[in-house]
Amino acid sequence: MSNPHQDHHTLPAPTVWPMVFALGLTLAVAALVTHVSVGIVGLALALIGAIGWWFQVLPEEQVEQIPLRPLGDRAAPIVAVSTRVERLQLGEAGHRVRVPVEVQPISAGIKGGLVGAVVMAVVALAYGILVQRSLWYPINLLAAVAMPRMALLQMDVLRAFSMTALVLGVIAHGLVSVLVGLLYAVILPMLPRRHMLWGGLLAPLLWTGLLWALLGVINPGLSARIDWTWFVFSQIAFGLACGFVVARAQPVATMQSWPLQMRAGIHAAMDRDREGGR
Predict the structure, then answer these.
(1) Do 41 and 145 sit in the same domain of this protein?
(2) Are residues 50 and 144 in the same domain?
(3) Residue 63 sits in a domain of what CATH number?
(4) What does the pLDDT read at residue 270?
(5) Are residues 46 and 115 both part of a single domain?
(6) Low-confidence residues of the chain, pLDDT below 70?
(7) In the chain, how many domains are there?
(8) Are residues 167 and 110 in the same domain?
(9) Same domain for 152 and 244?
(10) 16, 68, 93, 241: which could join 116 in a potential S-S bond, CB 3.0 to 4.6 Å?
């Protein structure tokens, strides 16, 4: 171990001779498929590189002194800590472990998406009633995703009831919510602890920022009609509700807990053979 109070490090001096030697050997071998003159040049370079490399090391090794920063400017020494870390365990029957060991069931993602859809709808409808004085305004804006021209309509039209907008809004809201719920079920087990923080706060903020940027380019009219403060609140409400349902679900073990014959698919072939013998 080097002395921390020394003012330099002693390192082998840089040299080009190993590269010259390697180039010579490459040309010498290339002569087998090219011309003998290439091999002569290659052997000469290899010999020159070997001699130069020899005198770089013997009879005395060439070194270089690398100055160090003053002691006060150097990084602090590494201090060992006693924090416990989680260690990976072997999988079933000593096989390589699969991460995550357990995952949330697909049904949890569907339920979480539906519950989150209801909670987010309550927040959106509250915005429509309290701010726009219309229950249908947020629904019509949601339908404008499928019918972009609706975003350009007058405010009184957006506040009015539309059966087409209601059907499109409910279908779009339900499908997107279920898909996001499934995404929560897949991703949350892979994240560190505090799933409610990831799914309830960080993910809605990232999703809202991405949507705000995309709508500003794709449909500026719709982006201008959206109250982004209420939109963030609705997304956080969805994330908290969906994340709570997904996190509370009973996880299921991954395939590594299956017997070897099931992982290899042998049991299916055996079942077919048995059925064929009957």
Answers:
(1) no
(2) no
(3) 1.10.287
(4) 47
(5) no
(6) 1-6, 85-101, 189, 191-196, 255-278
(7) 2
(8) yes
(9) yes
(10) 241
pTM: 0.55
pLDDT, tens digit, for every residue of 192-227?
A: 666 667 777 788 888 888 888 887 787 788 788 888
Would you say residue 277 lies in a domain? Answer: no
Mark whether 109 and 20 lie in a shared domain: no
Range of the structural domain that residue 236 is part of: 102-251
The position carrying tokens 């409400």 is: 237
